[in-house]
Amino acid sequence: MHIFAKEYVPSHEALLNFTSKVHFASGASEVSQD
Question: From residue 33, how far is each of 4, 20, 21, 22, 30 by CA, in Å?
Answer without folding.
Answer: 29, 20, 18, 17, 5
